[in-house]
Amino acid sequence: MNTAADQLKLFLRNQQVLVTGGTGSIGREIVASLLKHGARKIVIFNKDDSKQYLLKQTYAGLPHVHFLLGDIRDYERVEFATRGMDLIFHAAALKQVPICEEHPFEAVKTNVLGSEHIIRASIVNQVHKVVNISTDKAVNPTNTMGASKLLAEKLFSQANQMLHPSRTRFCSVRFGNVLGSRGSVIPLFLHQVKAHKPLTVTDSRMTRFFMSIHQAAYLTLKAALYCSGGETFILKMESLRLSDLCKAMSLFCKQEQLPEPHVQVIGVRPGEKLHEELLSVKEVRHLFEDEELYVVYPPGLQQKDSQHFKPSAIQDYRSDQIQPATPRKLLAILNQYEQQGKV
């Protein structure tokens, strides 16, 4: 019997794939993974010409990697980008909580209306599967970014229910914090200690789910493989306490013979939670799992339709209620990012 890795490679081989937001941290890792799995054509769609220029240098000489400059807010450009595609990975979004709090109309235009454009264009062009990249902040949201991503999730889920007969199937993946991605805390803290600046900490009691960029891309590809329509896929991930990450930074500084970092408490930012959630109360009634993933199936699923996933008995999934990573493990992660040149 084929392993999951074999199934994934067979599924992705010779596919024509569009990656929106393909020059961002997650998008770039998805593109790299698609190349390893033998995708026939990869189209990278983004609105930042500088990032596109730099990434084009990386893939110069690869005739099956193409670039399109455009904005998901522009339906005509999105419709053009989706022509002939088999799969779409929708990573384009406004993701910074404070920025979305300051500019909520912009968050709606990109995260909600832009997602609607992806859905409409995918149906028009008969794309096979579309995977929406979401966030734990979409669960019981307390900020604009989370609320806009919750609406995007609902658009993707409902597209499977309302738009039949359509060959297109839509699903979402829900991430925790992606360590090492642009704007995440590890690159920030490493920059601060190397510049002999204090660590800016919102609240030391804060906990967060975390995953690597590689795990994030892997979850996204697996979601495309398993998607039947309407699911939300969640990686089984670890959590960290911000206080433990500060301890890991102290260990890192001692290891690198840097001054002991001072912690500057700046307070919780508008819209931030102390702890994150990956499941709502309603979702646990439709929750299945395997060794790596949880999956929330749409209501009405029959047991026979759940593929290899089995019903899950967990009642919640909160970052403060699972065993956190130790400072020593977090130090190993810091060292890994240093060695890989990710900061």
Automatic annotation (TrEMBL):
Gene3D superfamilies in the record: NAD(P)-binding Rossmann-like Domain (3.40.50.720)
InterPro entries: NAD(P)-bd_dom_sf (IPR036291), Polysac_CapD-like (IPR003869), Polysaccharide_Synthase-Rel (IPR051203)
A Pfam entry, by short name: Polysacc_synt_2
Domain Polysaccharide biosynthesis protein CapD-like, residue spans: 17-296
Family: Belongs to the polysaccharide synthase family.
PANTHER family assigned to the protein according to its UniProt record, in alphabetical order: UDP-N-ACETYLGLUCOSAMINE 4,6-DEHYDRATASE (PTHR43318), UDP-N-ACETYLGLUCOSAMINE 4,6-DEHYDRATASE (INVERTING) (PTHR43318:SF2)
Name recorded for this polypeptide: SDR family NAD(P)-dependent oxidoreductase
